[in-house]
Specification:
Length: 1023
């Protein structure tokens, strides 16, 4: 501070108990306002004037301005302050520099009334003017300096040197104007050498409290306008903003020591060397290499190192295809031989069709040599739907945290890699971000890395997004965003350190935007000059970043040229040796690419044996009574009267030994919980149930957030039960639950759509992961999809779950009749890609849910669930159908009068689901119980060939009819018809009874719906 002592010393010279009193005129107004800043806990003195406290730091600003004025002219301040400043500069100890002003009217003990001052308030900070006679420009300059600092913090990233290509760089002549706007116009050249007080919201001063203006600007530009651009001022936490400021503004904070620089160069050499090796050996193959963003590998390894040192043991990662092979090789340390054999076109030695090499996942356990700790690394397999793996990764991460008791996310971390065009363009990114802070979906912070090619395939960013940055979607969840020039390796390392530390400290999402380029086209065969000639002319003139950084370290004398070549040659030898070993391999194994191994799950099990699904009646009764009862402290827990009526009705069912749909579901869940199986039910409004039938969570009617989870309180030593309402997302939440189900095979994970047709917006997860995941990636999943389905006259949108789509994607052959040998039904399940069912009884629903855990393998289960049947008086099951010795019925045969005289039966109707109850009501009305037999196919896929054949043989003279409520081009008709033909060898024909083909799933006209339903029943029974 020139010759002056520091302001902190001046303030310390004030005696204890002193308060500063300042009168501030509001420009031309006559009224005065009293502001005070206390330096002790004593209350402010009484005053006839209105009082209000200073803003933070404003008293220090006031004294500083007055002190600067005193330095220029000691007479410009009151004589008491003149004496104080002289004594303080002379070295007076605290309390001795202060001299009470003489002869002031009505002096108040320990308080100094000061002369009037002029206020200047800008933004959130208030800078108090000085006493009469101080130039107004000094006051304005101090306010402007604070504006300059804040402007760089908010907008400095706009002029940062982020683009390695130098294409998207602001005009240097106008750069400062872009950030500071009008703040700098008032400063003269001589003003830039003057010292200014630094506010508490900056750390550019280090230990200094004041700096000249030119030094302030220089340090701000170093912090915010070099190779790093920081977006964080939108955060709504002052603590978090200051945390970030400190890590970018503190002088010298980005420096790396020589060992760190050598490690960085070695990792960069491996990243570059791997791509160069593949380019030489497999020049005609697509590999979606990392050239242009080789820094990604050191960046990921730095994040892993930093996070591991903070206690993280497991990393779950998801990424698109660009750079995947390099990540597998140099981050996960996947054996290089396994990668090279993927280029060889060898036959597979195990199940599955496999996938292209740049979609595959992996799981590795290895020692982190930097931290000397064992870590687990998993990369989730991903299709070309670039961001589709995001929620899958999050679900898998959440499951690992759950099963490891990691309630704060300290042991398991998710890392998501993105492309710039996909990050801004794919809605699933937004859906996944919105799960980040939801209690039952949070993973306690994800580190996002955007490989920003500045182009999407051939599309310029100006035509692929409307936001300034591809990362703007992250702002919606208050995630800080660190843009960094990928050709500045040390800047990237600093950003990675800060991001890792942020996640460790706050357990919130953070985004690293690696601004880079794509040296080749979209793939190695593509020609980018067709569409981006100027960009690629520039790219081809650039040296790889590894060469630039190696030359930099050679100049800094950190390494020698010989050491650089030695590191390169060493890795080249590793690649060559692995390549030679790969040539001796004759088969590839898909199991080597499994991203979610289930250690010990398949060992020692009979693949054709299913554990019993029936339950002892005592268990059913216990669960039923608990499910029908209020909380134990019912006197303190007020239940809604409507819910109490539901509980009473449930208790009546228990006493009558029957269960409706909700009761059967609760008994299935409860019995699994008793046996130690975790149950997780997720989806929109699942706690209550869309149709107000479930009520697994009871809400206190007068106390907010007071809830009772019934099924979580059945037994003292039961497994946990998670039931959680989700965000209004299908794609994201279904993907999340799929990821959750992949982690632990001994858990029942269910996702329920609010209405069955809502699965339309989750089709990518259904098609790319659920139906084909095991075939492509050897990934099994026992995920259950509950899809409310049925034609209830409610219009086209909430009628059909599109049963036909799931059946069309099943992998069984309609023209092949499998041999009916022992274990036929289980072998069918093991060979098909998923199970599709449309149950008609609560008991069958109970058994099929329990069977998911009883099977010796895992398959996705697609269940068409009812709406009107939830309360249908005939849709109830006796406890006798769920007791020990009972099991799931793939087909429920006719059990009425018609079954006693099959030769007299004229018509055998096959159907599935809710329509059965409509048919039996119409049959009863027409008096056809002995002439018409009805068989219900409960499990549609895999098709119960053996049971269908038995029924057809039993009613050999009957006309065969398939009845469905869906339109002819929907429902199960197109699936069952060719299979019936195969069973019957075309000797008998299956007739269709139902609605005609239609583009819409249902009519929106109630009267037309009723007419269609009557026609359907007439056609079924007599047509």
């Amino acid at each position: 501070m020139n010759k002056a002592r520091s302001l902190s010393h001046l303030l310390s010279a004030l005696p204890e108990g002193i308060s500063i009193f300042v009168k501030i005129p509001r420009h031309s107004q006559v009224n005065f306002h009293t502001f005070y800043k206390k330096f002790s806990s004593a209350p402010p003195p009484p005053t006839a004037l209105s009082s209000e406290p200073f803003l933070n730091g404003s008293s220090s600003n006031y004294i500083e301005v007055m002190y600067q004025s005193w330095l220029q002219d000691p007479k410009s301040v009151h004589q008491s302050w003149d004496a104080f400043f002289r004594n303080a500069r002379a070295g007076a100890s605290p309390g001795e520099a202060y001299i009470a002003p003489p002869s002031l009217a009505e002096p108040k003990p320990n308080h100094i009334p000061l002369a009037a001052v002029t206020p200047v308030v800008t933004g959130a900070a208030a800078t108090i003017g000085t006493t009469t006679g101080v130039p107004e420009k000094i006051i304005d300059d101090h306010a402007a300096v604070q504006g300059v600092i804040r402007a760089y913090q908010i907008r400095g990233h706009r002029i940062a040197n982020l683009d390695p290509l130098g294409i998207n760089v602001a005009d240097p002549e106008n750069a400062q104007e872009l950030v500071c706007r009008g703040y700098m116009t008032q400063f003269r050249d001589e003003d830039k050498d003057r010292h200014y007080k630094l506010p508490r919201t900056t750390f550019i001063g280090g230990n200094e409290k004041t700096l000249p203006l030119k030094e302030i600007i220089k340090r701000l530009e170093n912090a915010y306008c070099k190779s790093i651009g920081v977006e964080f001022m939108f955060l709504n936490s002052l603590e978090q903003c200051n945390w970030i400021r400190k890590r970018f503004e503190t002088p010298g904070i980005m420096k790396m020591d020589n060992p760190e620089k050598r490690l960085l160069l070695a990792r960069l050499t491996r990243s570059h060397g791997f791509e160069a090796f593949l380019a030489r050996k497999f020049s005609s193959e697509k590999r979606f290499g990392l050239e242009g963003c080789e820094i990604l590998i050191p960046a990921m390894k730095q994040i892993i190192d930093k996070s591991t040192s903070a206690g993280v043991e497991s990393f779950v990662m998801g990424m698109p295809h660009r750079g995947r092979l390099n990540v597998l090789a140099n981050v996960c340390r996947k054996p290089l031989e396994h990668i090279f054999t993927q280029f060889a076109g060898l036959d597979t030695g195990d199940e599955g069709s496999g996938d292209v090499k740049y979609h595959l996942g992996t799981y590795q356990e290895r020692l982190n040599r930097v931290t000397n700790k064992n870590i687990r690394l998993a990369i989730v397999a991903n299709p070309s739907h670039l961001e589709a793996c995001n929620p899958v990764v999050q679900g898998k991460t959440r499951a690992e945290q759950f099963y490891h008791g990691d309630s704060e996310g300290k042991k398991v971390l998710s890392i998501l890699l993105h492309g710039d065009a996909a990050f801004s363009g794919q809605g699933i990114v937004y859906e996944t971000f919105h799960l980040s802070d939801l209690p039952d979906y949070t993973t306690h912070g994800t580190i996002h890395i955007v490989v920003n090619n500045q182009i999407g395939f051939t599309t310029d960013p100006r035509y692929s997004r409307s936001s300034p940055y591809c990362t703007d979607v992250a702002r919606v969840v208050n995630a800080p965003i660190f843009h960094v020039n990928a050709d500045d390796p040390e800047a990237v390392m600093h950003v990675c350190n800060v991001a890792s530390e942020w996640r460790t400290t706050y357990h919130k999402d953070v985004v690293i935007d690696l601004v880079c380029y794509r040296r080749n086209g979209h793939n190695e065969i593509d020609e980018p000059m067709f569409t981006q000639p100027l960009m690629y002319r520039k790219i081809r003139s650039l040296n790889p970043v590894v060469e630039k950084y190696a030359n930099q370290l050679i100049e800094e004398k950190v390494v020698t040229k010989e050491e650089v070549e030695e590191v390169k040659a060493k890795y080249e030898k590793i690649l060559d040796d692995s390549y030679k070993n790969a040539q001796t391999i004759t088969q590839v194994f898909n199991k080597h690419w499994l991203d979610s191994p289930w250690s010990g799950f398949f060992e020692g099990k009979d693949p054709l044996k299913v554990s019993p699904t029936g339950v002892h009646e005592d268990t059913l009764v216990h669960i039923g009574k608990k499910f029908s009862s209020a909380p134990p402290n019912a006197s303190d827990f007020q239940i809604h009267r409507g819910v109490q009526r539901i509980l009473n009705a449930r208790m009546e069912m228990v006493n009558e030994r029957v269960a409706d749909w909700a009761m059967a579901e609760a008994m299935a869940f409860g019995s699994l919980l008793k046996e130690g199986t975790h149950v997780r039910l997720s989806g929109q409004d699942v706690e209550r149930g869309t149709f107000s039938h479930r009520h697994h969570i009871l809400h206190h009617q007068k106390v907010d957030k007071s809830k009772y989870n019934i099924l979580a309180n059945l037994y003292r030593d039961q497994a946990p039960y998670t039931v959680c309402n989700s965000s209004l997302s299908e794609y994201g939440v279904l993907g999340f639950e799929l990821g959750f189900s992949m982690t632990n095979p001994n858990a029942l994970v269910l996702w329920e759509a609010q209405f069955g047709d809502f699965n339309n917006t989750a089709q990518c997860i259904i098609d790319q992961f659920l139906s084909s995941g095991q075939t492509k990636w050897i990934r099994q999943s026992g995920l259950v999809m509950l899809l409310p389905h049925g034609m209830e006259g409610m219009g086209p949108e909430h009628s059909s779950a599109r049963l036909e789509r799931f059946l069309q994607m099943t992998s069984d052959d309609p023209d092949v009749l499998p041999p009916f040998s022992e274990g036929f039904s289980i072998r069918q399940l093991s060979e098909i890609n998923w199970i599709v069912a449309n149950c008609s009884t609560p008991a069958n629903y109970f058994h099929i849910l329990r069977r998911q855990i009883a099977l010796p393998f895992r398959k996705p289960l697609v269940l068409m669930t009812p709406k009107s049947l939830l309360r249908h008086p005939e849709a109830k099951s006796s406890f006798d159908e769920m007791n020990e010795g009972t099991s799931f019925l793939r087909l429920i045969p006719e059990r009425g009068p018609a079954s006693q005289n099959p030769d007299e039966v004229e018509r055998l109707i096959f159907c599935s689901g809710k329509v059965y109850y409509d048919i039996i009501a119409a049959r009863r009305e027409k008096g056809l119980e002995d002439k018409v037999a009805i068989s219900r196919i409960e499990q549609i896929a895999p098709f119960p060939h053996d049971l269908v054949k038995t029924e057809c043989d039993k009613y050999s003279k009957a006309k065969l009819v398939w009845s469905q409520e869906e339109h002819k081009n929907g429902g199960a008709w197109t699936y069952v018809q060719p299979r019936f033909s195969t069973i019957l060898h075309d000797e008998r024909k299956l007739h269709y009874a139902g609605r005609p083909a239609s583009a819409s799933t249902a009519t929106g006209n109630k009267k037309k719906h009723v007419r269609e339903s009557l026609d359907l029943l007439e056609d079924t029974l007599t047509g």
